[in-house]
Structure prediction request, 220 residues.
Amino acid sequence: MRTIIKALLVTVCLGGLGLLQAGVIVIGVPGAATNCIPFGCNFIAGTVYQQVYASSSFSEPITISDIVFYNRSGASFRSGDYTLSLSTTSKLVDGLDTVNFDSNLGPDNQLFWSGPLSGPAPAPEVVFLGAPFGYDPALGNLLLDLRVSNGGPDSGLYLDAYSGDAAGLFSRAHNFGGGFEGYGLVTGFSYGEAGIPEPATLSLLGLGLAALAFLRRRRK
Prediction:
């Protein structure tokens, strides 16, 4: 009887509560096309690159733990010091400001990952594991802000992207070339989502705790 009660308690705590549900949301379809911006091309010192993702791609609030890009080129990173930040923006897809990039940032802008990149890029996925960012699509679109300093020469790294038109899924802006395109990199967002215990689950948990307390009193 003791074993069954303990097993029930473990099941309730780990399964019934649903404390962590994980998944990945991929914006775009890998394999459609490729692009070297911003990890492979040599543009200017102090590169600013921003990509905005439509909130409609997210069905509910999530906590983003990883940012994933898709690599089939087998090439190397353009060497440099990279900083990736996330925020909730009021800017529309295809509506980023290409003059004042800071005006695109949301008030919750948060540093997600920073560090040097160089050498061969992982394949088939380039994964940035960063500081968890809570995103609620009801509050606006999602903005990725990427900045590069001390950038090296072209490396030939092309990641999966949409070219020409991303059909409103995302768009990008940057401080070089044309400054704006209605497309960008196919991106995956890995997330963990806190579950909310149901009343019946809480009742079972209470019964399990009471049973353990009873067994401890009997043992004493």
